[in-house]
Amino acid sequence: MKKLPLYWGIAIIGLMVFSACGNGLDLFGSSKPGDENAPQSESGAMDDLVPDQIHPSTYLTSAITERPSHVHYPNGMAIDYLYRSFLQIPSDMVWGRDGKLYIADWAGRHVVTVDKDGTMADLGLWKTVRPFQELGPRHLEMDSTGNLYIATHSMIFRLSPAGDLAPLTGIDEYPINSLAISPEDELYYTIKNDGKIYRWQEGQFPILITSEISEIGDIEFGLDGTLYMTQTGKTTIKKIDLDTGDVLPFAVDVCDHDPCWLTVDTDGDIWARSNNELHQLSPDGVEKPFTVDGVIVPGGFFWSHTPGGIAFDDEGALWMGCYNSRLIRLVAVPGKVDEFSTEFFAGFEASDLAVDSNGNIVAPDINRGEVWKITPDGERVLVTTLRNTGRITVAFDADDHLFIGTGNGEILRVESDGTTSHYANVVTQRMVFGADGVLYAVSGYDNQLKSIVAVTGMDTVASLISEVDGVSFGTGGVHIAPALDTGLFVFAEEGRNLFHVDFDGNGSLVAHLNQFGAGGPVAMTSSPLYEEVYLIPHGSYDLIGVGMDGSVKELVYDFWGDPWGMVSSPDGKWLYVAESGAIDKLSMNIIRP
Description:
The chain is mainly beta. It has a domain at 10-19 and 86-345: YVTN repeat-like/Quinoprotein amine dehydrogenase (Methylamine Dehydrogenase, Chain H, 7 Propeller). The protein is built from two helices and 51 strands. It has a six-stranded mixed beta sheet with strand order 22-21-26-25-24-23, with no helix packed on it. It has a four-stranded antiparallel beta sheet with strand order 1-51-50-49. A hairpin with a 2-residue loop joins strand 37 and strand 38 (460-465). It starts with 79 loop residues before the first strand and ends with a helix.
């Protein structure tokens, strides 16, 4: 496991405060300077635009009282939150001998501590440290004396057990990526764009170990001093010869998609966690199967969401973060070898949003399979708990009756007493009521051809449309939104096509939006006042507005964190966006003056 520090002094407790939602950095303008060269991961979460370098003498700023946001209006004002989970997007973690897990929550802009029972607290560094406010903490590491090293993309800080914070000197390249502490307590760090690995030395220039490693990912030392490394988009784990800088293969076909995180247990085995995989490897690179909740891994399907850090605690339990605000702890089964059971410390991820006539938002949290109502003032009320945690969709009819599309292919109606009743059997991840009072749903499982169906009553389902002018909606994600009283907007991720479909099933192309990236996820809604649709495409993560004439306006940049749902308030004054760990609240008076 990662190096265990000595007990942190009581002084650190003085830094631990609970926090709320907040303000942030201006990343906007009529264009996005530097964007043509800015790297971006598939998850869209790890690579921001390059800022001006911050000199160590100017890293402190006037104290603020609310944690900053990473989303801003075009005029530079920070967006507000309707709801914000305490943990939003974990991007790295390390265990301390004080019995706490330390997490770099980059979207939350803070370093979070977690007790074994899931209790979370905040070190409060964001209050006065500009890099935490602007870019957020990205990576963590600890040495054997209890010093916590915290990296943003622009700087590395050292927090002592006594609570003293200071930036490391001599580091002037960007973006800083991962950190590792050697068995000799030496700090190593990487520069992603140039593929460099450095060893940092107190009072001296950093020593370059190697360079030009494409898409360098996580680094981690084995117990024997071997340095292991992953690379974004590559399945092989490498090891680095620290004397020669040579890069050698260690284990092939281990990492699936990006990022891929590494940690080491007390026996010296190397653990690798990527999107769909969790592997245990001996120091010789031999795969060692284990069991989680009765399923043999590898071989059985493992959690598929983008991972954010991995670390063992002092009881041999393996902690894993996910970009969807979820924290997982795999606990060793007593008396069993290589058997684990799962504990979840969920944050919040809404897979869809709907709004009633009073402006109340309904959001299904797929981490727990719960559906929540959130009032315009931010108060949360549990609506119902479902039996599964698959992708959930929600919609209100004109009389504010709530309908829920579940992950097992059933649409439920929520009754006035909070109970649910069967309405129709439709496999859907998106649905909405049209101006004609009919419930329209995107029908089809993942990787199946999609179609739009009309649910006109209980178990009364009719096909509406599956293609426009011979162009199929495809097998990818498909999204729908009302087009005032003229029909529906339909966006197909596979072809990046936005269509208009009337209530008789006649369709026409509105715009081809391939310039805004590819694939999913995508968030989409429409205006209740104008014949205009709003999308946040995967790849660009920018909010765009598209008119019926095909005109496109870029409105707000950088909705990192996999936005899944979006909805407009009934009066058209607010736009709500569900991202990992939060629901953003955007003023349409600012976006569309």
